[in-house]
């Protein structure tokens, strides 16, 4: 699908000049060229050159993604691909930061005003320890990481994340960067038999992209988004107010929140788990079980496990571990999440992986009138068959229900 969406404006989205916008569009187009022009060449390069070189050196064919990587890193074509990918990643942040550096004082004042007028709560504790797996590295090569702060009431990394995610995803997260949230909302509509949660919690919400669709789908529900990064939470609160939605945000660790046991009917996360650690994941699953009321659902939308992929696809995806500051990317895919959910107390028969079709793909296929929750009724009511759209047309979701 050719992406024709532009990011929808809102009061605290950074406003690039003409030249800044052109540079940002270049970075998006550069990433599209890499994905569409360079990436398809890796398969033939491996089959024709790298695999044969590996066999000559080792006396056997490459057996897994690690063998494939050891063969490919020596090939000039792969080196060109990997270098271009890393350069594109750094360019998207740099091109966006120019705008934020110029506008930051004004953006902070706008955020303060929006938050002051918001009906939703903003909970920022005076003392908070951000987990080391977030602070020790600039994840996704994002300058300052998710939680970096440069000034009081800072929202700079939130603003950078908001614009940067649109460029990183080449627009395929939709005009509000909320495709994961909308996709899971459509899944809830389609598969959970009239389930109507009264309290909803989004773990690792960053700037609330995926949080807001739950308030649109369930307007009477109390919705919370939590994240370990204060600049993200501040930005999320102001962004929601600017978009006219009453959503609560708090700085909390998904491993151990400050909410009472049994206080939520639906707990979700969107690409959170692979940003944590091997020690954190079991704690997050345990906390979800503690926080859910009986009959409540836990839904984590993240990366599909490696065991369902061929070794070459594993190798391609694992390049994020090596070249994009994603240290837990590969290890998370090898973690037995079903076992973690069972160990946390979820009944075995309630735990499963499934696919939530990408809302943006469904809207285009259905020629829906607009990309919003109001336009999703016809989409969410119909049946979906895996493989109906292009590969990558669905989000992998782990679902469990508390007894």
From TrEMBL:
Single GO term (MF): methyltransferase activity
Domain Methyltransferase: 200-296
Region annotation (Disordered) ranges: 1-21
Tagged with keyword Chaperone: no
Keywords: Methyltransferase, S-adenosyl-L-methionine, Transferase
GO annotation, biological process: methylation
Superkingdom of origin: Bacteria
CDD domains in alphabetical order: AdoMet_MTases
Pfam families: Methyltransf_25
Keyword S-adenosyl-L-methionine appears in the UniProt entry: yes
Entries under PANTHER family matching the protein: METHYLTRANSFERASE, UBIQUINONE BIOSYNTHESIS O-METHYLTRANSFERASE, MITOCHONDRIAL
Name this protein carries in UniProt: Class I SAM-dependent methyltransferase
Upper lineage: Bacteria, Pseudomonadati, Pseudomonadota, Alphaproteobacteria, Caulobacterales
